[in-house]
Amino acid sequence: MIPLRPNIRNMTGYVPGFQPRDEQRWIKLNTNENPYPPSPRVRAAILAELGEDGASLRQYPDPPSTAAREEAARLYGFDPSWVILANGSDELLNNLIRAFAEAGEEIAYVQPSYSYYATLAEIQGARVRTFGLGEGWDLLDFPPRYEGKLFFLTNPNAPLGFSYPPAFIEELAGRVSGMLVVDEAYADFADGNALALVKKHENVVVTRTLSKSYALAGMRLGLAVARPEVIEALDKIRDHYNLDRLAQAAALAALRDQNYFRRAVEKIRTTRDWFSTELRVIGYSVIPSSGNYLFATPPDRNGRRVYDALFARHILVRHFSDPSLSHGLRISIGTREEMEATLAALKEIG
Ligand SMILES: *Cc1c(COP(=O)(O)O)cnc(C)c1O
């Protein structure tokens, strides 16, 4: 037998949402991708970086992604020493665990939220604890003082879509003795965010992604905002060339085109609110969503049945077999046309 570390041998590995090969034949509402293309300036910037003959690719990229880092810092109102860019925010989640949790030490997150935290902790050999959600989205059995090394709060919650009030997150920051990582993958679709808490509490880290709100999932771009001591640690751990030249050009162009960004986000929010209302009309219960997806439960509470019937019609949504989620579906918000087709299919399925 090859001498793998036991935790690697025993782990199952994360299973991402299904990406069909014949993509054009599906309405794809299962991985919270943006239905609109990124800003046209992103394509132009990538082509400009590439140049006529691609010769720029001979040379390594700028190791710290300086230009994109400065642009993000300016956008969020921080000094660049408080910001780091990454190859997807998944890279940052991974490196936060590597920076703060020794093998055998504990990290925690909310169940249900993003189970990839658990996979990353397993790789590190850290222990994982989860806290369930009460009726009012309070954290069940959360101790007055949480002594683990990291607590991941997905806000807005995925897959349920609700968001925690700022006062709740601030209280949590005071109760977590390690780091509170607010995973704001969907914050651009919400009304608020925790960036102000990064300045106020030294143990708060905010992570963002350009995958969803900036329509750049295929480019792999994420960022984190935290105190310089935290950013310095994350800079030591990362791949020194974590963002390639095209990704750096794309990030800079996308962050600079705030007009385009705001219009796309607004369209998705409008479609989301319209689709929620229509689902309720046909008897679904829908959790009010602050993301670009929503969690909806059919009248018979049989999420699997509706998932299969949509699948047969080439509409792909997300069903989770976990008992706390199997009654419903997570549906990403596509274009208005895609959501009208999905609604018509749901009416037919009954
Ligand atoms: C999509 C998602 C991520 C990962 O973002 P990438 O930047 O694509 O790696 C992280 N957290 C949550 C909750 C997500 O939904």
| Number of beta-strand segments | 12
Main sheet: strand order = 2-8-7-6-5-3-4
CATH H-level homologous superfamily name of the largest domain: Type I PLP-dependent aspartate aminotransferase-like (Major domain)
Quickly give the CATH architecture of the largest domain. Answer: 3-Layer(aba) Sandwich
CATH level 1 class label of the largest domain: Alpha Beta
**Helix content class:** 25-40%
- Percentage of β-strand residues: 5-15%
CATH topology of the largest domain: Aspartate Aminotransferase, domain 2
Major beta sheet, specifics? Answer: 7 strands, mixed
Distinct ligand kinds: pyridoxal-5'-phosphate
User: How many domains?
Assistant: 2
Shape: globular
Helical/strand content category: alpha/beta
What integer value in Å does the Rg equal? Answer: 20 Å
InterPro entries: Aminotrans_II_pyridoxalP_BS (IPR001917), Aminotransferase_I/II_large (IPR004839), HisP_aminotrans (IPR005861), PyrdxlP-dep_Trfase (IPR015424), PyrdxlP-dep_Trfase_major (IPR015421), PyrdxlP-dep_Trfase_small (IPR015422)
Protein name: Histidinol-phosphate aminotransferase
Organism: Geoalkalibacter ferrihydriticus DSM 17813
Subunit structure: Homodimer.
